[in-house]
Amino acid sequence: MDWSDSWRGAFRIELRAEAVSLAYRGWPVLPGTYPAGTENGVTQWAGRSGLELHGPIPVHRDWVDRIGTRPDQVATWWAGRSYSLLVATGHVVDAIEVGAGLGHRAAVALRQIGVPVPIAATPSGRWMFLVKSGSKLNAELANNSDVHLYGKGEYIPLPPTTMAHGVVHWRVKPQVCGWNLPEAHVVQDALVEAVHAPARFQLETV
Which one of 60, 72, 81, 137 has the fewest CB atoms closer than 10 angstroms to its CB? Predict the structure, then answer.
């Protein structure tokens, strides 16, 4: 992608508005590094004192101490640069990340029981189900290499953060569920059902 200043600038106002909106709702937002071109085929990330090889990561090294920053201060973070939009997990919101295939089946299961859940997706094909903080993965999901729970001490990128090959986007926006995050077990139950869905489907169609 073209990471020119003019291209990044087109997203800055949207990123800032989204960050402030989330902060007003109590979500612990953080500014993150952003793509700044490639060298030897490797994306470089800007926003800290120098270029980073991995990202997006928090711009502030003391980001843990900045959790809960007031919305008016959050607005100043995005005043000059198109920082990525990160949310610290383990405080208000956690995220259960899965591959797109498993995520799609779980989303169908949740839709069938009438439970809308905010879902963000990355350009690399990972889906993140946003849930209330404080729960652990059940044993079956904890042993599944396709599932990761982002909790305390971690963070996730949210739309419209730019990645190396595209933009993080919403599959289901938080507005759809009235900004009410589900309990983690609701999503975990849907994921367990989705894990076994292919086997059941094969049996039913033989």
Answer: 72
Q: 132 is written with which tokens?
A: 């209330």
Q: What is the pTM of this model?
A: 0.91
Note whether 81 and 173 are within 8 A (CB): no
Phi, psi of 141 (to 5 degrees): -75, -35
Alpha-carbon torsion angle 155, 145, 42, 45, nearest 10: 0
Tokens 């383990």 sit on residue: 90
Span 123-145, pLDDT tens digits: 999 999 999 999 999 999 999 99
Cα–Cα distance, 142 to 136 (Å, whole number): 8
In order, the DSSP letters of 152-179 are TT-EEE-TT-EETTEE-EEEE-GGGGTT
In angstroms, what CA-CA distances link 39 with 9, 35, 45, 52, 107?
A: 22, 11, 11, 11, 38
Quick one: which of 191, 47, 55 has its CA closest to 122? 55
Using one digit for the tens of pLDDT, what is the confidence trace for 35-49?
888 888 888 999 998
